[in-house]
Amino acid sequence: MTASQSSVAVPVADGGAAIDTRALRKAFGTLVAVEGLTLAVKRGEVFGLLGPNGSGKTTTIRMLCGLLAPSAGAATVAGFDVGTEGEQVRRKIGYMSQKYGLYDDLTVIENISFYGTIYGLHGSTRAARIATLVRELDLEGRINQYAGTLSGGLKQRLALACATAHEPPVVFLDEPTAGVDPASRRRFWEIIHTMARRGTTILATTHYMDEAARCDRLAFMSRGHLIALGTPDEVTKQFGAMSVEEVFIQLQHQDERKSEMGKRKSNVGQGVGR
Ligand SMILES: Nc1ncnc2c1ncn2[C@@H]1O[C@H](COP(=O)(O)OP(=O)(O)OP(=O)(O)O)[C@@H](O)[C@H]1O
Ligand SMILES: [Mg+2]
User: Fold this and answer.
1) Do 150 and 158 contact (CB within 8 A), yes or no?
2) What are 172-209's pLDDT values in tens digits?
3) Which of 16-25, 67-76, 77-86, 244-253 has the lowest mean pLDDT?
4) Which atom in ligand 1 lies closest to the alpha carbon of residue 26?
5) Hey, what's the torsion of the CAs at 264, 250, 183, 230, to 10 degrees?
6) 3 state SS of 39
7) From the CA of 57, how far away is ligand 2's center (Å)?
C-alpha cells in the first residue's frame, strides 16, 4: 500500500459506522469469551470498551483486527468484513496491544521506521511521517534511545506512533495506559482526542474510570455480553449512579454474583458438598 492509498477516504459501512458488529461471538472450546455482541462505532468517535478482567474486551478487539476468526456473527471495520477481508481490515487499522509490541533492541526512530515500512511507507513519505509522529507524540530528544530503556509513558507514546505510522482511519487501543503515570496518561488521551477530532475512530479499553468518563460513548461488557451502552452521562443516569466508576463497580458486583451462582449450580450438578 502506498501513502497516497492510505489517505484515501474511508469506505464506511451502514451510513457512517466505522466499526459495526452483529451478534459477534467467540468461543474457545466450551468457554464463550464473547456472545451476541452488536454495536456500531461512529467515525471520529472515541469509544471506550469497559469490563472486568476476562469479560471479553481483548477477544473482541482481536476479532475486529482480523487476528482471530469469529465463531459466529459478523463485523465490518472501515467498511471491510473482518471474517472475509482480513487483509484489507489490517491495512485500515492501527492496533496497540496490551503488550505494546515494541522492539526493545531497536531505537525509537528504528521502531517507527520499521512499522512504517511494514505498512508500506518508503523514502521521503516515510521520513516526513516519522518526523510528524516524533513531533506530535513528544518523542524529540529520544529518537536514538533504545525502546527497552524508555520509561512507561514514553514506551506507550512510541507504541502509539508505531501503531499509527500509516495514518489508519480506525485505531484499537487495548489498555494503552496500564502502568503509566497520571501526567503521561493525560497527555496520551489529549493526543487520542486530537486524532479523533481529525476523523480517526478510536476504540480503547481501560480500567481507569477517569479515562472512561472522557470517552464519547462507553460499552460495558460482562462475561462476554454487552450489558450497557451509552454516553458516560447516559450510563451514569441509567444506573442511578454518581459516576462512571460507580456504574463499573455496580456492574462488577453483579458480575461476581452471577459467577458465584454459576459455580454453585455447577457444584450441585457435580454433587459437590453433598
Ligand atoms: N486463546 C484463548 N484460548 C482460551 N481462552 C481464551 C483465549 N483468549 C482469551 N480466552 C479467555 O476468554 C475470556 C476473555 O478474555 P479476554 O482476554 O478477552 O478478556 P479481557 O476483558 O480483555 O480481560 P482483561 O481486562 O484481563 O484484559 C477469558 O476467560 C480468557 O481466559
Ligand atoms: Mg484484555
Assistant:
1) yes
2) 999 999 889 999 999 999 999 999 999 999 999 999 99
3) 244-253
4) 12
5) 120
6) strand
7) 5
In whole angstroms, give the CA distance from residue 250 to residue 219: 15
Per residue in 95-141, pLDDT (tens digit) is: 998 777 899 999 999 999 999 999 999 999 999 999 999 999 999 99
Closest CA to 40 of 67, 75, 92: 75
Q: What is the mean pLDDT of residues 207-218?
A: 95
Contact by Cβ (8 Å): 59, 31: no
Burial code (b: 16+ CB inside 10 Å, e: under 16) for 127-158 equals: eebbeebbeebebeebbeeebeebeebbbbbb
- What integer is the mean pLDDT of 64-81? 96
Comparing C-alpha atoms, which of 51, 47, 77 is closest to residue 62? 77
Instruction: Say how far apart CA 41 and CA 21 lie, in whole Å.
Output: 9
Domains and CATH numbers, the chain: 3-269 (3.40.50.300)
Residue nearest to atom 25 of ligand 1 (CA): 53
Distance CA(51)–CA(220), nearest Å, equals: 5
Mean pLDDT of 196-224: 95
DSSP letters spanning 139-175: -TT-TTSBGGGS-HHHHHHHHHHHHTTT--SEEEEES
Q: How far is the CA of 250 from the centre of ligand 2 (A)?
A: 20
Distance between CA atoms of 199 and 176, rounded to whole angstroms?
A: 20
In short, whether 51's Cβ falls inside 6 Å of ligand 1 is yes
Contact criterion met (CB below 8 Å) for 2 and 120: yes
Cα–Cα distance, 251 to 229 (Å, whole number): 12
3-state secondary structure of 109: helix
Helices (H), the chain: 3-6, 57-64, 86-92, 108-118, 123-136, 152-163, 182-197, 209-213, 232-238, 244-269
